């Protein structure tokens, strides 16, 4: 036994030297299994699994071994007898049947256990991926196509399925059979076993060579799969534009190219993988032939005390080796593909999440007559910032919604500044409007306020606290945004509006809808508030979707409201009707409005005119008109009949 | 279902057949090898033998003067057979890979192309995530099934038949055991398969939902983050994920019962063979060596049965995928060219609606547009104004036949739009949709969607009319700036202007702008309209807008309300005749005061 282990070690060291191993094989494999067997319960189940595999394999090997014994010891002696006593024979058969039964039962149980355990693992991987994904910075989503990210969740986790449910138990089982058979062979003749070991070494070498190449090809395949996924997602999502521009044929051609690429890589991978089994199978036949010849030679030359019977038995075992070897080589393919998928999954899991070094949190507050603030466990409708200091003290600041920008410079890419020296402030309850041509930097300002992107310390303050100190999660909870691109989720209208405040009552939701003037069209929908919205609200018009988004922001009842082109798709008639509501919506809050509509902007307390990242004019509507500057030219266009 | 997938299989029929052929050859040789193995032992190591030789197939003889010689020769012969078997095995492996990946590629291509041909109505029927799952995951299953089918579905039966015939040749009565066992096995597998199929369908549907959830979060990640709903969304995703897992479990656990069951049956056969064969040996009717061979054949039959069960499992799983793909492939395209479309092209851009009714659900009780009749003269600038959901977008979508009317006619240049070739119609009618999508690629590449061979001057001209040239040149790489998916690195207004430029490059006869300047400031909007008037004179322009000043100077203004035309006329007329129009005007006027 020791010799065989030595031999195997030699073989594996040789394998290492020859390279052609997939780059992260063992670390990735270890990580996959570590995730699968994370909990104590999982480890126990796995131990049970291994036990069952051992039972099943042992039953199989013992059964085969006993078969020989049945023939030699229970049948052969009876040959020629006229009235043979079959009781011993029958008893032996019963024992055999019992062993086989145990083996089958073990196999059945372990299959079920395996499926149970590993479908759970797949789900856990997907869940972990998602949980991590939502924490990634916005930049990640802007630089990776959606379809590529989706491919990791689906195609890459799918590669695990076969490996975990069939390959691993199969490999363990076959390895066990291999070891047991091997042990018996050693017992019979260590000399012949040396030959077998040498051949096994060659087989391992071949397996690692081919397996290594498989790994490379499968990695390329998974990458191509992701590309196909990304293309399909982008072009099916944008299908309407494709149709309007009669771009179908060109799209088909582009897809054809990627499709072919995938087929090429996939074919290479599978051709390589498919060859392994025939090679291994035939190497084991070669082993048989060599052992037979050597054995016969020994008998002739009388060496090593071997008998014909012993050789015959030995050859039987040699023959039995080929089965588990064939099974294992069949599964190498599967494992390689899973490793390729696993590598991609871990790349996503290792991507850096949104950095958040904030420590100031948002809490419910009780404010007494003197202005003293204490933390409250229940919702009071008043909020405070809980600010732990380095010396261990704690201060509470009421959330009023003061926002200050102090000479902020920013660029998404450091070489291309988008904001230059922006200084402004909005006191609580003030309405600040941002106007200017598109690309002037207005949306960027909102991206900074809610920390989708960060600026260096101290430049932006919220209620006089440096916003980098405020936990992103809490900061965003204190803001409500209605964005330019409206996104709704699959769910009822009620659920979509409730997104703004998860524990809002139905009445609160309806009140918000009334405020946004969405209530009337919602009640005209087939199921009213319970109408199911699908595909980003495809069954509503753009304007209706925006009204729901406004209601969603309203129900959150936040101290700071950011409206970024919130009513751009709403006709002015409807907008006028919600203006009253909007006025109410904006009461007592700090509001940042980005809009082009005069009607939306004119009532702001301060209007900031932006141009190429700078604020060029500042004042109330009347003041700016007097200036006869950019604002004036933007808005007197309203009167000209052009 | 098979009918839809067959053409793809036919494309790779050569590779498939070759693969199966080589597998068959490989297997035949493989089956022979245990036979050779036993000969080595039975003849070569036979006690007290004086002659050593063995004959195969009646004519091949291997003999040796000594035992060693015989064994060596037999050994060499066996190795030779093994090598030839290996050769065939490698070839079959290669052709199998060609056939299965090729099959998958073909199905993928045909399905994707079919989706490209879908009309808006067809697209509405399937959700994007479901289409994505079908084009990726489902095809993966099909590929695996095809591969198994080509390899194992030949190997297993061939091996089984050969091993069984050897067994029969040896001892027919004993071999009868198989005749009992195999049909029982087959019946069980078939039963399992039909029980499992609906479960796999359900699993794939849950998978669709999961993909949908995922995609939504990717598209709406800004909303998720700004409402700080990461935990909420994670919880929802976990629920969907658990759903998938439960349905997966329910389906797969049924299928994995197959193998232990088969194994148990094979063990039962072994016991039976032992019992009966043992009796025979005792009675001297059978030799020990023969018996051992018999047992060897049982193990071969066992292996082939296992392979067969794996193949069957794969087929059951993939049947669900196959039917989902088949659904796409056999989808009836709603909007297609008429039997004999006219070769005429659109020249003037005159539009007429005659008593048009339309409903998205094709339901006459629930009309989105009712009794629309209007005339637009060539070269006119027409504006459509109306409340949210009044049917403006729906109306203009009927002109390039993105949807067809329920009743009534839409005429362009005096001809029903259904008579034109769709490609000619859409070449002449350019539409800038409300939801603008730009694709991954450079700005120039996106603009060229309007005209593939547009020169740089043409691109610039269109961009200038759309007031986009200015900001494009302000980017470091100008027209070669790469846009991320969906055009995320340009602002909403910039996206709108690029979309307008893209449409202008088509040099259309009719230009439809569906609320395309909502994110553009008034000043720029005015400039664009002025440029359109001069650069694009002669084009019929239809503008859907919210701002009165975008609309005021139009030749004709159509006021819509709840799916009907409420009023038509010029600005001054409408101020007097239309309450709705007046209200809007006044509200916006008040804003300017």
Describe the 3D structure:
The complex is a heterodimer of chains A (642) and B (593). With 642 residues, chain A is of the alpha/beta class. Helices cover 61% and strands 12% of the residues of chain A. In chain A, the strands form four sheets. A six-stranded mixed sheet of chain A has the order 10-13-14-7-15-16, with helices on both faces. In chain A, helix 3 runs antiparallel to helix 4 (87-133), helix 7 packs antiparallel against helix 9 and helix 7 runs parallel beside helix 10 (308-349). Chain A is elongated. Chain B is of the alpha/beta class and 593 residues long. Chain B has a six-stranded mixed sheet with strand order 8-11-12-5-13-14. A four-stranded antiparallel sheet of chain B has the order 4-3-6-7, with no helix packed on it. In chain B, strands 1-2 form a two-stranded antiparallel ribbon. In chain B, strand 1 (52-56) and strand 2 form a beta hairpin. The longest helix of chain B has 51 residues, at 67-117. Chain B is elongated and about 120 Å long. The chains are: A alpha/beta (642), B alpha/beta (593). The interface between A and B is large, with 179 and 186 residues.
- Mean pLDDT, all residues of chain B: 84
Shape of chain A: elongated
Q: Count of DSSP helices of chain A?
A: 20
Helix content of chain B: 55-70%
Q: Looking across the biggest beta sheet of chain A, what order are the strands in?
A: 10-13-14-7-15-16
Chain pair with largest interface: A-B, 179 and 186 residues
Low-confidence stretches of chain A: 1-22
Task: Report how far the terminal alpha carbons of chain B are from each other.
Answer: 67 Å
Q: How many DSSP-defined strands of chain B? A: 14
Mean pLDDT of chain A: 82
Strand content of chain A: 5-15%
The geometry of chain B reads as elongated
Structural class by sheet pairing and helices of chain B:
alpha/beta
Q: Largest sheet of chain B at a glance? A: 6 strands, mixed
Radius of gyration of chain A: 36 Å
Measured distance between first and last alpha carbons of chain A: 97 Å
Give the amount of beta strand of chain B, in percent.
Answer: 5-15%
**Unreliable stretches covering 5 or more consecutive residues of chain B:** none
Give a quick account of the main beta sheet of chain A: strands, pairing sense, barrel closure: 6 strands, mixed
Number of helices of chain B: 20
* Cα gyration radius of chain B (Å): 36 Å
């Amino acid at each position: 036994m020791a010799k065989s282990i030595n031999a195997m070690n030699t073989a594996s060291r040789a394998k290492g030297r020859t390279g052609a191993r997939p780059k992260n094989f063992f670390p990735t494999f270890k990580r996959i299994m570590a995730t699968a067997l994370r909990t104590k319960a999982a480890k126990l189940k796995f131990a049970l699994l291994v036990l069952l595999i051992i039972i099943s394999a042992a039953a199989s090997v013992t059964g085969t071994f006993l078969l020989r014994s049945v023939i030699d010891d229970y049948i052969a002696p009876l040959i020629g007898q006229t009235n043979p006593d079959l009781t011993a024979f029958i008893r032996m058969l019963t024992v055999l049947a019992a062993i086989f039964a145990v083996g089958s039962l073990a196999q059945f149980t372990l299959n079920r256990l395996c499926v149970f355990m590993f479908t759970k693992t797949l789900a856990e991987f997907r869940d972990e991926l998602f949980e991590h994904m939502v924490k990634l910075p916005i930049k990640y989503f802007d630089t990776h196509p959606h379809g590529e990210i989706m491919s990791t969740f689906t195609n890459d986790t799918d590669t695990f399925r076969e490996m975990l449910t069939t390959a691993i138990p199969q490999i363990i089982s076959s390895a066990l059979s291999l070891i047991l058979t091997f042990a018996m062979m050693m017992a019979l003749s260590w000399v012949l076993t040396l030959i077998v070991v040498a051949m096994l070494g060659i087989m391992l070498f071949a397996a690692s060579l081919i397996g290594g190449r498989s790994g490379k090809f499968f990695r390329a395949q998974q990458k191509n799969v992701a590309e196909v996924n990304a293309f399909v997602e982008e072009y099916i999502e944008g299908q309407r534009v494709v149709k309007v521009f009669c771009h179908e044929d060109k799209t088909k051609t582009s897809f054809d190219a990627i499709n072919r690429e995938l087929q090429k890589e996939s074919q290479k991978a599978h051709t390589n993988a498919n060859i392994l089994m025939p090679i291994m199978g035939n190497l084991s036949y070669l082993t048989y032939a060599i052992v037979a010849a050597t054995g016969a030679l020994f008998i002739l030359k009388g060496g090593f005390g071997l008998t014909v019977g012993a050789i015959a038995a030995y050859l039987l075992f040699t023959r039995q080796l080929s089965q588990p070897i064939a099974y294992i080589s069949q599964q190498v393919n599967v494992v390689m593909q899973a490793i390729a998928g696993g590598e991609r999954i871990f790349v996503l899991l290792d991507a850096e999440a949104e950095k958040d070094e904030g420590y100031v949190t948002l809490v419910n507050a009780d404010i007494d007559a003197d202005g003293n603030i204490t933390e409250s466990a229940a919702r009071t409708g008043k909020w405070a910032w809980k600010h732990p200091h380095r010396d261990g003290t704690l201060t509470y600041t009421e959330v009023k919604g003061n926002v200050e920008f102090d000479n902020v410079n920013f660029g998404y890419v450091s070489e291309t500044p988008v904001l230059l020296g922006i200084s402004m402030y909005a006191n609580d309850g003030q309405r600040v409007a941002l106007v200017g041509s598109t690309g002037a930097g207005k949306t960027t300002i909102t991206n900074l306020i809610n920390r989708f992107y960060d600026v260096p310390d101290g430049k932006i303050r919220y209620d006089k606290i440096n916003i980098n100190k405020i936990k992103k999660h809490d900061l965003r909870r204190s803001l409500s945004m209605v964005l330019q691109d409206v996104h709704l989720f699959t769910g009822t209208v009620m659920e979509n509006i409730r997104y703004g405040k998860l524990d809002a009552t139905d009445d609160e939701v309806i009140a918000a809808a009334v405020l946004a003037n969405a209530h009337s069209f919602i009640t005209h929908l087939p199921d009213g508030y319970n109408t199911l919205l699908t595909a980003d609200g495809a069954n509503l018009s753009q304007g209706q979707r925006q009204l729901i988004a406004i209601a969603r922001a309203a129900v959150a009842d936040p101290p700071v409201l950011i409206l970024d082109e919130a009513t751009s798709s709403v006709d002015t008639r409807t907008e006028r009707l919600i203006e009253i509501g909007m006025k109410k919506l904006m009461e007592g809050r700090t509001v940042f409005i980005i809009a082009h509509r005069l009607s939306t902007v004119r009532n702001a307390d301060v209007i900031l005119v932006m141009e190429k990242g700078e604020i060029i004019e500042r004042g109330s509507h009347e003041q700016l008109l007097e200036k006869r500057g950019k604002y004036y030219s933007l808005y007197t266009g309203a009167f000209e009949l052009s | 279902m098979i009918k839809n997938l067959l053409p793809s299989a036919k494309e790779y029929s050569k590779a498939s057949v070759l693969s199966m052929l080589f597998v068959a050859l490989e297997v035949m040789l493989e089956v022979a090898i245990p036979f050779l193995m036993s000969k080595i032992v039975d003849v070569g190591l036979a006690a007290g033998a004086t002659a050593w030789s063995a004959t195969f197939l009646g004519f091949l003889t291997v003999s040796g003067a000594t035992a060693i010689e015989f064994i060596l020769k037999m050994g060499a012969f066996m190795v030779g057979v093994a090598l030839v078997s290996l050769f065939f095995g490698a070839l079959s492996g290669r052709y199998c890979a060609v056939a299965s990946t090729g099959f998958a590629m073909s199905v993928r291509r045909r399905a994707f192309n079919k989706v490209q041909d879908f009309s808006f109505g067809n697209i509405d029927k399937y959700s994007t995530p479901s289409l994505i799952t079908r084009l990726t995951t489902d095809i993966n299953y099909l590929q695996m099934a095809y591969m198994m089918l080509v390899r194992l579905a030949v190997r297993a039966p061939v091996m089984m038949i050969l091993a069984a015939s050897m067994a029969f040749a040896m001892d027919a009565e004993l071999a009868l055991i198989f005749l009992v066992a195999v049909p029982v096995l087959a019946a069980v597998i078939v039963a399992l398969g039909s029980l499992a199929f609906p479960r796999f369908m359900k699993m794939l549907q849950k998978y669709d939902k999961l993909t949908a959830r995922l995609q939504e979060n990717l598209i709406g990640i800004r909303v998720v983050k700004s409402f700080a709903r990461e935990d909420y969304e994670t919880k929802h995703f976990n629920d969907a994920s658990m759903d998938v897992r439960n349905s997966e479990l329910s389906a797969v656990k049924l299928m994995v019962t197959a193998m232990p069951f088969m194994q148990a049956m094979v063990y039962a056969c072994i016991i039976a063979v032992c019992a009966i064969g043992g009796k025979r040996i005792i009675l001297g009717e059978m030799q020990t060596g023969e018996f051992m061979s018999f047992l060897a054949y049982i193990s071969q039959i066992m292996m082939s049965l296992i392979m067969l069960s794996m193949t069957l499992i794969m087929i059951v799983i993939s049947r669900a995928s196959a039917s989902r793909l088949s659904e796409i492939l056999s989808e009836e395209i709603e909007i297609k060219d008429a039997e004999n479309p006219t070769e005429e092209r659109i020249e003037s851009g005159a539009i007429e609606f005659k008593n048009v009714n339309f409903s998205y659900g094709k339901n006459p009780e629930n009309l989105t547009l009712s009794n629309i009749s209007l005339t637009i003269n060539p070269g006119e600038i027409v504006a459509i104004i109306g409340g949210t959901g009044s049917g403006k977008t729906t109306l203009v979508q009927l002109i390039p036949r993105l949807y067809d009317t329920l009743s009534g006619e839409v005429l362009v240049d005096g001809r029903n739009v259904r008579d034109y070739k769709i490609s000619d119609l859409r070449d002449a009618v350019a539409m800038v949709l409300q939801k603008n999508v730009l694709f991954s690629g450079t700005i120039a590449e996106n603009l060229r969607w309007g005209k593939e061979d547009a020169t740089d001057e043409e691109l610039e001209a269109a961009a200038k009319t759309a007031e986009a040239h200015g900001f494009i040149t302000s980017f470091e790489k100008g027209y070669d700036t790469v846009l991320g998916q969906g055009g995320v690195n340009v602002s909403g207004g910039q996206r709108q202007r690029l979309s307008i430029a893209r449409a202008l490059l088509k040099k259309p006869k009719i230009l439809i702008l569906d609320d395309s300047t909502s994110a553009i400031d008034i000043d720029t909007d005015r400039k664009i309209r002025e440029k359109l008037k001069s650069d694009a004179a002669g084009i019929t322009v239809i503008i859907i807008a919210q701002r009165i000043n975008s609309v005021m100077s139009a030749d004709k203004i159509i006021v819509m309300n709840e799916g009907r035309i409420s009023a038509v006329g010029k600005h001054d007329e409408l101020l007097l005749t239309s309450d709705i129009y007046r209200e809007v005007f006044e509200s916006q006027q008040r804003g300017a005061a």
